[in-house]
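Lecture notes, unit on protein representations.

Consider one protein chain, 188 amino acids long.
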Amino acid sequence: MRPVDEAMWAFGRVSGFMSLALFTVSVLLGILTRSGRPLLVLPRFSVSILHRNIALLATVFLGLHVGSLLLDSFAKLRPVDVVVPFLGSFRPFWQGLGTVALDLVAAVIVTALLRQRIGHRAFKAVHWLTYAVWPVAMAHALGNGTDAAGQWFLLLAAASGAAIAGALLWRLSSTFLETARARGGNLQ
């Protein structure tokens, strides 16, 4: 492998990992934001801003991940593979899951940018796709990632999965406090 390809491959791995880690934090902050609770000393509006900015940073790393792999001759990623799932030459199913996750992220971004035009209800409906993005992206990382067999990666994936599962269970529980109720002062 040429040094340029090795650098692109390493950059692709690191940027993919960073994107997944940041999306994990973003999902956790999104659930917390929805609850209406502050985060440590941050008020609710700051948690919301932090959630949005971390999601944007995760998206930047996702773009760097895909872009670096498009430039890597070893990865053999074609532009069509970035848009149409399951066509790739290397582990097409697992690579396709990455494409599905990318497409879902793109849908969320487009609706976020058009939020004023399409309305809050449509934005919120599409934003629910983020609950599907995370496990699809994690499956892509575990099935296609170079580091997926590494103990450090498996430990971080398990910790991330446990954190997301715990947050989702809390989100679905009766103790979850909705933002509207929090603003109304009804803290049951």
